[in-house]
C-alpha cells in the first residue's frame, strides 16, 4: 500500500489560539480512517486542513507540512481548484444545491467544461450507483434534490463528489444529522467505496467508527493521542486516555 | 391584576392595534378605488391629457411611468447586484466595509425631494441632460440603489453557508460558487426585492418633479426610433409620470374635470403598485417552489 497523504507537525492557530498542536498522520491509499475524539478536540479542524477549507476562515494560520501524492498542498503554486477535485468533501449537514438531482451530480463536470450529454448521463448514473442511491432517485433525476429525504440528500452529496473522480473523500460527521436508518445506509455506502477510495471521516459515533473504519485516530485537545488499526484501538488501546474515552468514561 | 386578565388585555390591545392599521389601509384603498374606478376605461388609459378642457386621459403619463421604471431598473439593478455581491460575499469585515454600509444607510434615508433637487443640479443643469427621462432615471437610481442593494445583500445572506462550502469543496472558485450556486439559489428572493422596489419607483413623485419634468409632450406611438423627439423611446424628452401628474393636477390643474382625472389617475397608480406587490409575492413563491419543490 502506498501512502497518498502525509501530514507532518501540523499546527493550526485561530488568532492566538492553538487549535492543532503538531499533528503527524499518514494515510494509505484506499480504506477508511476514522477520526474520533471528544467535542473540541479539533478533529474537524484537522480534516479541513487536508483540502484547505480552513483558508476560508479569517485569521487562521496553518504551519507544518501536508503533502498529497508527495506535493505540498500549502505550497504557493498549488492549484486549489485542482486540489479540491482530488480531495472531495462531504459535510455534516447534507448540502445539495437547489437544483435537480441530475444537475447536482453533473455540477462539477459541467463546471469543468463537459457538455457531452451521453458522457454526463453515464457519469451521473455511475456516481449515483456508487453512492447506493441510484435505485431510489432514478425516477426523480430531474426533480429538485431538496425534495429528497436527509439520508438520500447526503448520498446525492457523496455522488456529487464521486462524479469528479477524487482520490480522497473527506467526511465531516456525515451521519450526525441523520436518523439511524439513513446513517446505516451511508455506512454501507462507505463500506462499498472503501475498495476504491481513500476515505477519512470524522465521527462522534464510536460504534460507527468500529463498524466501518480500517484505522482509527483518537484526537484530544488538539493532539493525536493514538492511531492504530481500529480493532486495536477498540479492543486493546495503548494509552489510558484512549481507553477512558472508548469505554465512555468521558467525552 | 392577575396574569390571566393582563394577558387578555394585552391580547385585546394588540389585536386592536393590528386591526386599526388594516382599517387605515382598507379605508384609504377603498376611498381611492371607489372614487377612481368610474373613470377607468380604455379611453382614459390611452389618450393624452388635456390642459384646459375636460375628457383628457393619462395615456402618456402611464407610458412614461413604465418607461422610467424600466430605465431606472436597467441602471440600478446591475449596480445594486454588484454592490450586494461585494458586501455579502467579498467584503472583509473592517472599517471600509462599515463606512460603505453606513453610506448606504444614510443614502436610503435621504428625503426624496432632496434627491430630486440634487439630481436637478447634477443631471439637468451640470450634465445638460435637461428635464428628461434620463435625468429622472438617474435621480431614481440614487433613490433606489441603497434599498435594492440592501435587499439583494439580505437575499444572499439568507443562503446557507453550507452551500458556499459545498461549492468550494467541489473545486469551484469563489466567483463560480457565487454565480453558479448562490445567485440561482437567491434568485426568488432577489426578484421579489426588485419587484417591490419597482412599486416604490413607480409611485415616486418628489424626486421626479425637478428631473423628469412636469410636461408630457405628445408622443407618436408609431415612431420607435429612440433618436426622434416624438418617439416614446427617446430618453432625452421630458416625461411627466403618473405620480407627478397627480401632484400637478391637484396643485395647479385648471381642466374642468381635474378632480375626476386625479381620482382616476390615483386609482391606476394604487392598483399598479398593488399588482407589483402581489406579483412579487406570487412570483417569488412560485420560483422558490420550483427551485426547492417545497410544498
UniProtKB/TrEMBL annotation, chain B:
Biological process (GO) annotations held by this record are: phosphate ion transmembrane transport
Q: What is this protein called?
A: Phosphate transport system permease protein PstA
Q: What's one GO MF term for it?
A: phosphate transmembrane transporter activity
Query: How does the UniProt record describe the way this protein sits in the membrane?
Result: Multi-pass membrane protein
Q: Which domain of life is it from?
A: Bacteria
Which residue ranges traverse the bilayer?
12-34, 66-87, 99-123, 129-148, 181-202, 260-280
What coarse category fits the chief subcellular location reported for this protein?
Answer: membrane
Q: Does the keyword Electron transport apply?
A: no
Q: Which family does it belong to?
A: Belongs to the binding-protein-dependent transport system permease family. CysTW subfamily.
SUPFAM superfamilies associated with the record: MetI-like (SSF161098)
Write out the entry's keywords from A to Z.
Cell membrane, Membrane, Transmembrane, Transmembrane helix, Transport
Spell out the Pfam families in the cross-references. Answer: BPD_transp_1
